[in-house]
Amino acid sequence: MIRFAFLFLLQAGGCAFAQQLPPRNTQQWALLSFVKADRANPVLQPDASLQFTDPVWNKPVRWAQKDVFNPATVVKGDTVFLLFRAEDTVGRHAGVSRIGLAWSTDGLKFTPFPEPVFFPQPGKFQQWEWEGGCEDPRVVQDSSGRYIMTYTAYDGKTARLMVATSPDMRSWTKHGPAFKNAFGGKYIDKWSKSGSIAALYHEDGRIVAEKLGGKYWMYWGDVNIWAATSDDLVNWSPVLYKDGEQREKDLRHNAPEIAEVKTVVAPRKKKFDSDLVEPGPPAMITDYGIVLLYNGRNVPSIGDAALAEGTYAAGQVLLNKSDPTNVLQRLDHYFLRPEKPYEITGQVAHVCFIEGLARFKGKWYLYYGTADSKIAVAVK
Ligand SMILES: *[C@@H]1O[C@H](CO)[C@@H](O)[C@H](O)[C@H]1NC(C)=O
């Protein structure tokens, strides 16, 4: 009910500005009207029967026993794959994160492969990924078909945005921190996560990264959403404020250690995203601009009083293809929020965290982690 009243106001408000601005009430750019697949949800749940020999501990681990959540999607032919985060029950953080692979031919019933495809290993990457693990994958392809995955490596203290590549989704090459070569390495130890690479979503399901203005673009971060550019999809540089460009005062968190990095999307007062914003699936390059589906966290006292403390609900923002740091439009309201028991109760309460979007058999399948415990889908 609240939502309908709100949309009505928004449309009325849009008319008043129609003469000066592009019509704010046309939301044709946004992907709306997703319907949660209640009969199939949750589409993936923790599974204590899945076991593999962890190469760091050198012993068997039930790697998906505790929680599964926050998946990336890949469509190949008539199959949807989820690359999903799974946590065990052991170790210092009671839950090392690894990435498993599951497949489905209807987008609703998934079968996991018995062993994870991506996990902490002894060697030069262990310093960043142990013993928190490898979290929250997002996957696109390049024009040759190679898969590029952004993910978070967590050492128990600092989250770092990392990049890996694969020809087949099963054997992956780790390339290390996304920002390792940017500005002499000054961002390598700064908190970073959630890399959403701008890409074209093809009707056959492929999600292919495309350059805009001669560079690949990525949105990243939690708290604020920042941007980064790359020539090769592996080495990324944060986009900084230009000389003379005005830095706005951040509503919630100043992230002073990276104050020179340009905030693209920030939390908003009185809205569902008052506490934090964080990218969802790979950003979509469309005729209207770049459509970024994102996650927002709420603090009721400064945000949306109707949503519980800490609620993650999902929003959408439209960015300018000629300047991907330029916000053109942003939905005032969330389009997906926690309401089912498995979205409300779990490892972290009140969470719908969108991360995988698949164009599959003529429809959109939006996969999201529920309460950091299970995976569900909404379809349009
Ligand atoms: C998009 O960005 C370009 C380049 O900065 C600018 O010229 C143009 O006015 C922007 N479009 C809109 C609708 O703001």
Structure write-up:
This protein has 380 residues and is mainly β. The protein is built from three helices and 25 strands. The protein has helices at residues 2-16, 126-129, 341-344, and strands at residues 35-36, 52-54, 59-61, 67-76, 79-87, 97-104, 111-112, 133-141, 147-154, 159-166, 173-177, 196-197, 199-201, 207-209, 216-220, 226-230, 236-238, 276-279, 284-285, 290-297, 312-320, 323-330, 352-360, 363-370, 374-379. A hairpin with a 4-residue loop joins strand 19 (284-285) and strand 20 (290-297). The protein is globular, with a radius of gyration of 20 Å. Residues 1-22 have low confidence and may be disordered. Bound molecules: 2-acetamido-2-deoxy-beta-D-glucopyranose. Residues 320, 322-323, 326, 328 line the site of 2-acetamido-2-deoxy-beta-D-glucopyranose (NAG). 2-acetamido-2-deoxy-beta-D-glucopyranose binds at residues 320, 322-323, 326, 328.
